[in-house]
Amino acid sequence: MKNNKLKKGIRDIKDIKLSSSEKLNLFTNFESYVKNHPVLDAPKVNIWSSFFVHYKYSYAISALLLCIFVSASVTYAAESALPGDILYPIKIYITEPVKAATKVTQKAKAKYEEERVMIRLDEVQELVKKGKFEDTIRAQVEKEVEKSVNTINNMEIKKIRNKDRNENASSTDDFRKKLDSHFQNIRKADVELKLDIPKEHDNKDQVEKFERKIKVQIGGFINEDTEARDTIDNKNNKDNNAKDNNRGRGLYR
Amino acid sequence: MKQQDKITKEFTDLYNSQTDALFRYCFFRMSDREQAKDIIQEAFMRVWDMLRKDVEVNNLRALLFKVTSNLVIDWYRKKKAISLDSMMETNEGDQGLQISDESFEQIEIQSEGKILLTKIQKLDSTYQQVVYLRFVEDLSPKEIASIVNLSVNVVSVRINRGIEILKKKYEK
Asked: Minimal CA–CA distance to B46: which of B20, B78, B14?
């Protein structure tokens, strides 16, 4: 009963309305107002402001694109960095490892590590030219070369080399030739520098020390390779009861 | 032209569906029929201005009531020179219903409607508007919250308490 009264009360209130004439009068006023105040043309927004206004994740995407752009710029700048430069760590700890990760086969990986060694030597050459090949930098480069050499050794390169001796022999020979060529250039740069500047400002025998150290590192790697080849030869000779054609024919003895 | 047509249609639909509800809302807060008509005319024009300028509007009905409520407050300020501070102190900006015997002379209303309005007006001023909008005009708590500038939770609590008190008044 009481609920009915409430409902009735609500209905009665809702029956309170403007009269038809009042509504018409109001509507006429609105029509006139609308005619005098038409819809404005859509503002010409450029695609970027529209993107930011309407797209929920626009700021996140923009931030991501900015990060990618900045990263790409820094990576590009790091390519030419030398030991001692601010961007050099990006080159050796980020850019080069990423490139190494893209090499699929063990052979390709090994080849890339050899390239990294050559890159280190090119960097040394540049530093020598500038007279900046100091003790600490030399130690840093030697460490990086050692890493590359160890990486090659740790891979199953021996297994691969043993499978195709002829190919391995020629690739090792190429590597040696490239090394020699790089060291030649470094020595040349060192000599030229010594001619230009006083002795106390030159590279202070850093080049000689460096070459000795690197050749020991690389030599060790090449010698191991030779030993592995000898072992396989011996095995093959035993199996086939054939003459040993390659014993004693190491490349770097 | 299509945009104009779309917005005009939207506006026309709004006018047709909400004019009476808006008039009632205005009238019960002002007790002045002519002033109520002026207020709703102004409210519709302001909403039209927003629509034509492509202002994004989530709920047109709530916006219309909100604009109307603000215009009613402005009217009171001019008429009675009530300071903003005192308004904020008493009702957090709310103005309760203003219904008197003179009000009923300006409208045609059946007896039960009159009784209900009288009982709503006897509620605490914090309940009057929210109960009226919810109970009579069927606005949602979310819409009411945007009109009276309170949170949805507060509005819901006030609606429930107000309706409870109203029902008790009917039981007496």
From this structure: B14
The residue-averaged pLDDT of A225-230 equals 57
Give domain limits for chain A. Answer: 64-102, 106-240
Contact A225, A156 (CB under 8 A): no
Sorted by where each begins, the domain ranges of chain B are 2-171
The three-point CA angle A185-A187-A193 to 5° equals: 105
Under 8 Å CB-to-CB from A60, ≥6 apart: which residues? none
Asked if B8's CB is within 8 angstroms of A29's CB, the reply is no
Q: What digits encode the pLDDT tens for the residues A49-68? A: 666 666 667 778 888 888 88
CB burial of A87-100 (b: ≥16 within 10 Å; e: otherwise) equals bbebbbeebbeeeb
Contact between chains at A12 and B113 (C-beta distance less than 8 A) = yes
For residue B27, which residues of chain A lie inside 8 Å, CB to CB?
Answer: 16
Nearest-Å Rg of the Cα atoms of chain B is 17
- pLDDT of B165 higher than 80: yes
Contact call for residues A13 and B24 (beta carbons, < 8 A): yes
Summarize pLDDT for B36-70 with one digit per residue, the tens. 999 999 999 999 998 888 788 888 999 999 999 99
Q: Which residues of B touch A13 (CB under 8 A)?
A: 24, 109, 113, 116-117, 136
A23 contacts in chain B (CB < 8 Å): 19
Task: Name the phi and psi angles at B137, rounded to 5.
Answer: -95, 0
Q: Rounded to whole angstroms, how far apart are CA atoms B15 and B44?
A: 8
As for the ipTM of the complex, it is: 0.85
Do B20 and A27 lie within an 8 Å CB cutoff?
Answer: no
Structure tokens at A243: 């003459």
**Cα A113-A119-A124 angle, rounded to 5 deg:** 135
Q: Which of B92, B164, B168 is nearest to B135 (CA)?
A: B164
Q: Check whether B1 has a pLDDT greater than 70.
A: no
H-only helix segments in chain B: 2-30, 33-52, 60-80, 84-91, 101-106, 111-122, 125-131, 141-148, 152-171
Q: What percent of chain A has pLDDT over 90?
A: 5
Q: Is the pLDDT of residue A162 over 60?
A: no
